[in-house]
Every structure is written in C-alpha cells, then in structure tokens.
Amino acid sequence: MNRQAHVLVYGLAMAAVIVAVDVVFFRNRFWERLIANIGIVLVFAAFYLRFLKHP
Prior knowledge:
It is a single chain. The chain has two helices and no strands. By secondary structure, it is an all-alpha fold. It has one domain. Helix 1 runs antiparallel to helix 2.
C-alpha cells in the first residue's frame, strides 16, 4: 500500500472513532462533544507525527 492509501485509512479510522464517541457518549451535549472531538483529533495527530510520519 502506498503512502496516500495509509493516510486515507488513518483518516477514515479517525472519523469512525469520532462518530462512535459522538453517538455513544455525547448525543445531546454540544460543548462536551466539541471538546472530545478536538481531543481525539489531537491524539490522532500526535500519534501520526510520532510513529507514522516518514522523514
């Protein structure tokens, strides 16, 4: 698999986690949902930059 496909799969996994957390935990809470989504994106970005980014 090439690099573009890896990034696509990683992005889809992040979207799936965000949607699942929204539906399961934060259905009617806007601010908590927004903060949780930002946190999830930051965790995924940190993991990507630390382990998956090629020099």
